[in-house]
Amino acid sequence: MLTMASILIVDDSLGCRNATAALLRAEGHQVNSADNAWRGLTILESMPIDLVILDLELPGLNGLGFLKDVGNGRHRSLPVIVASAMDETAELRGKCGSQVKRWMVKGIYSGEELLEAVNEVMGVGAPAVAAA
Length: 132
Hints:
This protein is an alpha/beta fold. Helix content is 39%, strand content 19%. The protein has helices spanning 14-26, 37-46, 63-71, 90-96, 111-122, and strands spanning 6-10, 30-34, 51-54, 80-84, 100-105. Strands 2-1-3-4-5 form a 5-stranded parallel β-sheet, sandwiched between helices. Helix 4 links the parallel strand 4 (80-84) and strand 5. The chain is globular and about 30 Å long.
């Protein structure tokens, strides 16, 4: 049986947080969520997290600020999947650093693609739920 991950979703969109959390929980993952970067950083300090799914466009401290804080602390090796409406550019990718393992553009990726990205980043096989 696969070891399920403890995943933190940092996204100011309630709909995106809830949909992503439901998808991940259905796969057996433990999910915590935060509606802004500061709450996400607080969660990181309070419990073990294996992976972060991060929106870059957040109120207050944005996703790049979150990544900078995480990269300068004890979580610098924590893998991150960016899930944002922002397209990936070389400049933006460079600002994100090496923690970002996958970049997914909101409105383009499917739930199955997100699960594949999570499994890839976490080093596990295909998701348990497959298309019939």
